[in-house]
Design a protein that fits this description.
It holds the Pfam family Pyr_redox_2. The protein is α/β, with parallel strands linked by helices and 356 residues long. It is built from nine helices and 23 strands. It is 28% helix and 28% strand.
């Protein structure tokens, strides 16, 4: 019996479980999925939960129901790679033959004083829910700061604009343009949308400190009702604490076969794994699918292929509220209604298509 433990029920963890259960050639299989929430969450949509335009009920997907899958809802404390043990809070440790680490990421505060205590987050369902509660409590015509003008910050700012037209929204980004990693055409389109919809863009920003009701940009104080942080991520602390090689944001360096070098029992996927690609649900799922194929080979006693095919991602889709969007598919930039409709379609397929 191959005892596989999967840590994290996010995009990568869920896809790994689904593919393993569907794999025809694997006979003796026991999967234990350890996740702190009793459901999979659509993390790419947490911005809408925080803005109040969807309920958290809409962002939940049930885990598969299969006799080969055991679900354990628990908080992970640490991983002992030498003893092949996963330590849990208030429970006995769990042993494994093979391990898939898919524990996601958390906010990275870049050493900005007060940022970790005085900002809201959309990195987890619980934190996005808290952000929603605080935002709904902001007084009429209040002022909200969002730090970070990447995809998350842009989607949150636009959704919040539709949810609370009365608010003054300030979007801070350290670059000269928001969406700096996107093609200029998209950055310019989104900038124009924000100007038309009165979201103030504070580019070339340098947030030097955050207090509960104040944010400092280049040391200049700006009074705010609340601040939301979307300015970068790092791997989960459990992963950062592992004594293995990591990149600059704590993601583990892996082989081309997605396992820790010298340890082909521990596979790492999603935001925990160093990659040439930007973190995304699509990337986590692609890594999960490849890992499943490799595990199947390992369990059949076959060697891993010498060379792995390159990962091909389809593109990125972002929303500007419920009616407009932007993105690129196969390197072709798109703006307006079409990318927004496409994004809704992808989400629908994810919830009701392959995951039902």
């Amino acid at each position: 019996m191959n005892k596989l433990v999967v840590l994290g029920g996010g995009y990568g963890g869920l896809r790994a479980v689904q593919k393993l259960l569907a794999e025809k050639g694997i006979q003796d299989l026991s999967i234990l999925l350890i996740e702190k929430e009793p459901y999979h969450s659509l993390k790419t949509e947490f911005y809408a939960l925080a803005a109040g335009t969807v309920s958290d009920q809409e962002l939940r997907v049930h885990f598969p129901n299969d006799v080969r899958l055991e679900l354990k809802f628990a908080k992970i404390e640490s991983i002992d790679l030498d003893k092949k043990l996963v330590h849990l809070e208030s429970e006995e440790p769990v042993d494994y033959d093979d391990l898939i680490i898919g524990l996601g990421c958390e906010d990275r505060y870049h050493g900005v004083p007060g940022a970790d205590q005085h900002t809201l987050s959309i990195q987890s369902m619980r934190r996005a829910r808290k952000t929603y509660q605080v935002l709904q409590g902001v007084k009429a015509n209040g002022r909200v700061a969002i730090v970070g003008g990447g995809l998350s910050g842009v989607e949150l700012a636009s959704e919040l604009r539709e949810s609370r037209p009365d608010l003054e929204i300030l979007l801070f980004d350290r670059n000269a343009k928001i969406l700096s990693s996107f093609p200029d055409k998209l950055s310019d389109y989104v900038t124009e949308w924000f100007e038309k919809n009165q979201v103030k863009l504070m580019t070339k920003a340098n947030i030097t400190e955050v207090e509960r009701y104040r944010i400092y940009n280049h040391d200049d104080p700006i009074d705010v009702d609340t601040t939301i942080w979307t300015a970068g991520i790092q791997a989960s602390k459990i992963v950062r604490d592992l004594p293995v090689d990591q990149d600059g944001i704590g993601r583990l360096i892996t082989t081309d076969h997605h396992h820790i070098p010298g340890n082909d029992s521990v596979f790492v996927i999603g935001d925990c794994a160093a990659s040439e690609f930007a973190p995304s649900a699509q990337l986590a799922e692609a890594q999960a699918e490849r890992t499943v194929k490799l595990l199947a080979k390992k369990w059949r006693g076959e060697a891993f292929p010498e060379e792995m095919p390159k990962i091909k991602l389809k593109g990125v889709l972002g929303s500007l509220g419920k009616k407009q969007g932007f993105g690129y598919m196969r390197d072709k930039p798109m703006t307006g209604r079409v990318p927004r409709v496409l994004k809704s379609g992808v989400l629908w397929m994810y919830k009701f298509g392959s995951h039902s």
